[in-house]
Amino acid sequence: MTSLEGKVAIIGAKSILGHALQREFPKASLFDTEASEDSAIVPIDLTNPRNINEALQNFGIDGFIINAAAYNNVDGAEKTGFTDSHKLNVLGPENLAQWMKVTRSHVVHLSRAYVFDGTKGQPYTEEDVPRPVNTYGGHKLEGERHLLCLEQPSNSLAVVMRTDDMYGPQGRDGLDALITQIRSGNALTVINDQIRSPTLTTTLARVVREFVELWNIYEELGGQIYHATSQDGCSRAEFAQATAELLNVPANISPVTTADYNDLFRRGKVTARRPRDVRLSTEKLANLGIETPKWRKDLRNYLQSPQDAGK
Ligand SMILES: NC(=O)c1ccc[n+]([C@@H]2O[C@H](COP(=O)([O-])OP(=O)(O)OC[C@H]3O[C@@H](n4cnc5c(N)ncnc54)[C@H](OP(=O)(O)O)[C@@H]3O)[C@@H](O)[C@H]2O)c1
User: Fold this and answer.
1) Structure confidence by residue, pLDDT tens digits, 269-279
2) What does DSSP say about strands 234-235 and 195-196: parallel, antiparallel, or unpaired?
3) Measured between alpha carbons, how far is 257 from 189 in angstroms, rounded to an integer?
4) Does the pTM exceed 0.90?
5) How far is the CA of 215 from the centre of ligand 1 (A)?
6) Fewest CB atoms less than 10 Å from the CB: which of 9, 118, 218, 256?
7) How many Å lie between the centroid of ligand 1 and the Cα of residue 118?
8) Which atom of ligand 1 is nearest to the CA of 162?
């Protein structure tokens, strides 16, 4: 197998996924908005093409760039105009696509199940037609299309990896807050009519590594979309209930519909429409021998040993 040594770069190295990716690719070149104190992380601004050229020039060409940088505030993306969501989720991938075409670098670009409208009633495959119901999903879809070079797909050396709600050892995600709430014994109101695939960052990072190792051998795996989430799917209420059970803490959980939740907690706020059921089929990756566990198994392992789960 050709070595990946010196050939992997992670943009968004400080993202919750980026931390897990660093563990899978310990020798990767790291990029994020700000340099780290030890200079291991080099600053980059994906929204600025000249800055991308400067930051990546020493990384060399013909490598594998994993792009985990994004704007992920779904409600915040509903603002109109030239928003952070547009800049980072559309313009960023467009700029990266230019770099990809010039340098013939491979790009793994992370996207989200929110590109679908959630009405299918069963897991979406990579062939299903995306139909976003909110601005964030629309921006993520536009970003995908830039990297897949839809006007001339043979130009694309990218893969789009779509995933769903993430949690992991880096915190900064909803699970930490959920655990605090459960332990506090406070009543918890949680949405029960949106089906998601909670995905452990360390599992996803392992999937990305296994994929890049294969892609390093089989060039034809590029220019495609892959779905990478946990299996089975659940509502946020089910996830909260399972978390409490696995922690062995009695929880006072009230499941409510999205409409009731918005009425109770989001009145007067800009709220993006959410797709109902965006489970993704991961069969395409499984056919390459890359498997993901059921969400409950990963959650159990994570709650038992956050640093070791997903390996
Ligand atoms: N989180 C989820 O539940 C979820 C679900 C499905 C898909 N995804 C996708 O998975 C990927 C990783 O998500 P994540 O949640 O791990 O991300 P995250 O924790 O929200 O981090 C985003 C990263 O992007 C960086 N960034 C911001 N502006 C930038 C710029 N102009 N240039 C370069 N980097 C910039 C941020 O740096 P600063 O912190 O310095 O701003 C941060 O490190 C994204 O593509 C996301 O859309 C996430």
Assistant:
1) 889 999 999 99
2) antiparallel
3) 10
4) yes
5) 24
6) 218
7) 23
8) 7
